[in-house]
Amino acid sequence: MKTLYIFLFLFTNTSIFTQWQYLPTSENETIYSITSKGNNVIIATQFGGIWISSNNGTNWTQSMVNRSVFSLAANSSRVFAGTFSQGLFVSTDDGMTWPFRFMGSNDIYGIGIKDSAVFAGSNGSGVYYSSNNGISFSQTSLNNQKVHAFAFKNNKVFAGTENGIYSTTNNGINWVVSGLSGQDIRAMVTNGNNIYAGSFTSFTYGVYVSSDNGSSWVLTPLHSAIYSLTTVDNYIFAGTSFGGIYVSSNNGASWVTKNEGLTGYYISAGAIHIFNNYIFAGIYDSGPPPSTDSYGLHRRVLGEIVGIQNGTTELPSMFMLKQNYPNPFNPETVVKFSVGKASQIKISVYNLLGGLVDVMISGNYPPGEYETKWNASSLSGGVYFYSLKADGVTIDSKKMMLIK
What we know:
The protein is mainly beta and 404 residues long. The chain has one helix spanning 2-16; strands at residues 21-23, 31-37, 40-45, 50-53, 61-64, 69-74, 79-83, 88-91, 100-102, 108-114, 117-122, 127-130, 138-139, 147-153, 156-161, 164-168, 176-177, 185-191, 194-199, 206-210, 218-219, 226-232, 235-240, 245-248, 256-257, 266-275, 278-286, 294-301, 320-321, 332-339, 343-350, 356-365, 368-375, 382-390, 393-402. The longest helix has 15 residues, at 2-16. The protein starts with a helix and ends with a strand.
């Protein structure tokens, strides 16, 4: 009877987190941006300023009032907030207060940070740059564009504008066109060797990828208007207009929706952010009359997606991950796997929240059948997931249970 109780508890606990959960705040409105600093999750709202939670979204405190906030970003010491018609604000206490303000009456749509270099994108006045962690700013030579997004790759800074992508190698003294001219680029992010750009332009919208440091761009199969992008491990998340949230585990070669629990007729994800083993999303649900529009923050356990999703790959079908045995086990179990061609193989173990707890094997393997024995004596009992990757591409993931 005791064993049956444990199984039922784990099944119930797992099912709770297999969809998006609505997080009520005092301002249920459009959420433009989400970031985190220290223990705080920080959200930017359309009219209600900035709200902060120190317990993953359970409770909220307002730290900026009576302002429309478009953009947020943080580094190791500061949080930056871009507003509508009131410039850029800076906080040195994890977003609790905002004593510093720059750029007067500008709309600040995007913020990019690399170490102590801060770039702020405005509505029509281009890019402003700070070399001293936001103590002072100056306008760069890209001074006539609406700028929503930034990305950093090698020695380049990329700016996503309403008219394509620009890049600089000297912190904005000079800018050059770097592709996707005429596209309204709302989001940019880097992952591994790739740069991803999200376009909001009709008919040509979608997620584009560059594997050559911005020299060329290829449209991925995700053809939706893109509001936001974020990454974790080899996963790319895209927030779309009217399509909800998509995720790819193979560098954008294929995408799947992750809208479980979002019930709107049209689902838009204006902001997404990963923090503390959760993924947070600012969601706008709408539909034809008599549907009621709804706004607000949603949260989902990252482990329900990362390390579990079976993405489409072009690797041979001979790659295979088999169910461990025995299962349940204590404390050792055996995992068998097949390698279709010589590859860098990794089998990783994740907990229920998506946190990496161990790596079973990692190395170069020729084609063949293999097995490995894994000892979990240092871990507590519960459900775990193990995932096989070949050359960085997720092949398969399976669930196992440790009984103690």
